[in-house]
Amino acid sequence: MSDYLDLAGQLMMVRLFGTELDADTDAFLRQYKVRGACLFRQNMVDAAQLTRFTAGLKDAMGPQALIALDQEGGAVVRSTWVPAPPSAMALGAANDPGLAREVGAAVARAVRSLGFNWNFAPVLDLNNNPHNPVIAERSFGADPLLAARLAMAWMEGSESEGVACCVKHFPGHGDTHVDSHRDLPTVDKPLEELERFEFAPFRMAAATAPAVMTAHIVYPALDPDFPATMSRPILTGILRERFGYRGVIITDGMDMHAIAHRYGAGEAAVNALVAGADMVMAIGSRETQVETVHAIAGAIRDGVLPLAEVEARLARLSGLAERHPAGSAAYAVEQDDRALMARAWRAGLTALKQPQRPPRGSKVRLVARGDVVSDGVSEAGVPAARIAEALGSVYEVELVTFADAETFDWAALPRDGRFTILASTSRRRYGPHARANWRPDLHLALWNPYQALDFVAPALMTYGFAPPALEAVVAWLAGETEAPGRCPVPGFDSAA
Predict the structure, then answer these.
(1) Is 67:111 a contact under the CB 8 Å cutoff?
(2) Which candidate, 91, 169, 97, 96, places its Cα nearest to that of 126?
(3) HSE (side-chain half, CA atoms, 13 Å) at 417
(4) How far apart (Å, rounded) are the C-alpha atoms in residues 91 and 89?
(5) Residue 326, helix vs strand vs coil
(6) 460 pairs with which residues across the strands?
(7) Is the pTM value of this prediction over 0.70?
(8) Do residues 91 and 348 touch, judged by C-beta distance below 8 A?
(9) Which residues are annotated as catalytic?
């Protein structure tokens, strides 16, 4: 059984706990020959700690280690102290492939300096659903050609700096109204529509993408029984055979509720590998990781996973690691990359309904949500006090905060003629109470651009809340820059 366990461990990526490689985790990785690890925000303190952590992982997992993170840009970044990249939709609004390539290269330089060799980005989902709770600004837009063109430029930049990308979430998470972290979504579209829309950017990227991540979504027209992560008709039939894809296929996190609430960890992992995945992202507890590796080993032993197919999977994973070796590299151009990111955020800044700047020195009322909690996928938003401080360089600011937009008494806001600015700092759309009972003079949509449609008010959209995004807003308010971006999803042209 030990030989089968050694093979099984190489088909698995795990989540780690804490900010150091402890002796127990080191022994676990070595015992099962695990070659993949994904780090999250809770694993990171600063550059010195993180570089030490990834170096320890490389030592424990060997020269073919795959050390990954989600550094997409915008709200989905794990290392928050490196130059902050714009979200995909900000790049979509700028619509400049050359800029996208520069940003992809800069992201890779930053994560490579920390010891990562695999970045789970860019997102190829086409967001055409205004109520999508988890994608929104993570998408380049709704046009397949634009999304593919920008994503491939971004990947080209990353590849030039030695970091593998992973496009996601195949075959498309953009037209869902359910977050697969919380439940199992369904995209009930006919095959012809999927071919024309969701499939298109993945098909275009299939020749160059080093890796593809699966979606925990049921597509009844393709497979009525299993989500894509576990569907052989989707992963093997469409991606491998029809699209001719030869790179690595990795699952999304198997601890997400769409999977974990319906299947045992071992059963789910085996199902995904049988479907055609090369690597299972077992980012649950240590107990579920042990259950997963034993289930995979049993499937290899029993012929459920034929040895020849396992060896083909291992060869693809080895090729990925050999082309993108793990290990940190010097970061000599960090300040240049910060300037690049600031330029990229400004290029995506988008105006809606001809917003007006109040004169410098005006008294303004800033209204914003009081908390900045994470939604479990993204980092927490920018605090209201930080926005007030930034705007304070241009105006005299009075700050009003609310806990819940649907219970807040919008009518209680003074009607004293003071210019009122709403700053939206979460991904969740506004409900009927807020929409019906108030209208700001200016809406700063600092995260989800669709929130700009919730109020009949002029808006400025940044597609993210990182410091350079807020700096771009302040520069616009001060009259130092314009808003040249064009929102790359439907519904905004008619509102302009």
Answers:
(1) no
(2) 169
(3) 1
(4) 5
(5) coil
(6) 351, 444
(7) yes
(8) yes
(9) 181, 252
